[in-house]
Predict the structure.
Amino acid sequence: MAKNCQSPTEIETGKIVGGFAHNQVMALADKVVDAVKSGAIKKFVVMAGCDGRQKGRSYYTEFAENLPKDTVILTAGCAKYRYNKLNLGDIGGIPRILDAGQCNDCYSLAVIALKLKEVFELDDINELPIVYNIAWYEQKAVAVLLALLHLGVKNIHLGPTLPAFLSPTVVNVLVENFGIGGITNVEDDIRKMIG
Ligand code: SF4
């Protein structure tokens, strides 16, 4: 059947910048730390996770588009396809979308967070200027979420909907102990997460 099909035709052209796994970001550590200290970067927004076909996932494109100009997106996984072609520019040479790679590279995002915690000499990972707006679709994203919870990360936003397989009891534990929340609309969520 494949042999009988027409070859695919290219539907778009262009370049996107990637390769910001932890080694690369840490090579820029001084620049990143200076940008945070000077206030040039106000917040990092982890927008990692999955993508899916639901129309409602355009939320993530709009969310990225409407983030204040002093924020930097940290991403890994398919979620990035919702916004990695947007021209969000850079902050003093640091691209506003730092793409670590595929979903397994969420490891890199965790390493970056832990390194920043060390550099800023913080006791609690939640004191970092990092917020989390994670898109999930399949089980691997749930494993990543569990890893973040293990690291003590709180107030993660999970969308576009909460997994149906989470029983009300489990949701209560996640909300009460980890402050996990869903998403609502772009405007309110940006106000809530970025301030
Ligand atoms: S778990 Fe699957 S859908 Fe989600 S980011 Fe990874 S490859 Fe993409």
User: Anything to note?
Assistant: The domain at 22-194 is CATH 3.40.50.2030 (Rossmann fold). Residues 49-50, 77-78, 103, 137-138, 140-141 surround iron/sulfur cluster (CB under 6 Å). The first strand starts at residue 43 and ends at 46.
